[in-house]
Specification:
The protein is an all-alpha fold. It is about 70% helix and about 0% strand. The chain has eight helices and no strands. The protein has helices spanning about 10-20, 25-40, 40-50, 55-75, 90-105, 110-120, 125-135, 145-160. Helix 1 packs across helix 4 (about 55-75). The radius of gyration is 15 Å and the shape is globular. The termini are close together.
């Protein structure tokens, strides 16, 4: 069985961010509850990663970025995302670790080119580019490189998986 993927655009990501920024706390909580209900295994996967970071701000960022990804995919498809079931978590974890190993192998002098190549070959280049911009920014200079690479790897793999049809 082959899967078809819908390309999420920069516009869909911008719209998702704009909508999230314009929501009040109750609306954000309701959206988070909907996401947790629709994607319990995915949220458990993200929570597990977040707890391992020992950084509350980074943990909150993971939840926010998960909502941006999820909402931008739903806006692009005009439909719900695929449900990630428990049996897919092992596959996600394996892909995440492979991507993590790849990111950690980047050399300082070639890192930008290697990230650009990763984005170009991704099934969801706009989402992966957005995540790279977020994680490899000055905001995360206080976190160890391994933690930032793990967050990026996790979220980019999740984005690609959620966009499958």
């Amino acid at each position: 069985m082959s899967t078809k993927e819908l390309f999420v655009t920069d516009n869909a990501i911008d719209l998702a961010i704009e909508r999230l920024e314009n929501m009040d706390t109750t609306e954000i909580n309701n959206l988070f509850e909907t996401l947790s209900h629709d994607q319990p295994y995915l949220m458990g996967f993200v929570v597990g990663l977040g707890e391992g970071l020992d950084n509350n701000e980074a943990e909150e960022d993971l939840f926010y970025l998960t909502m941006v990804i999820w909402h931008s995919i739903e806006l692009s498809q005009n439909d719900k995302t695929i449900k990630i079931e428990e049996d897919k978590l092992k596959e996600l974890e394996e892909k995440m670790m492979n991507r993590f190993d790849e990111v950690m192998s980047f050399t300082d002098e070639n890192e930008e080119d290697e990230i650009a190549q990763m984005i170009a070959t991704s099934s969801q280049p706009a989402l992966v580019s957005y995540l790279a911009d977020e994680f490899f920014s000055d905001e995360y200079t206080n976190l160890a490189e391994e933690k930032v690479a793990k967050m990026f790897s996790c979220m980019s793999v999740v984005a690609e998986k959620l966009a499958e049809r």
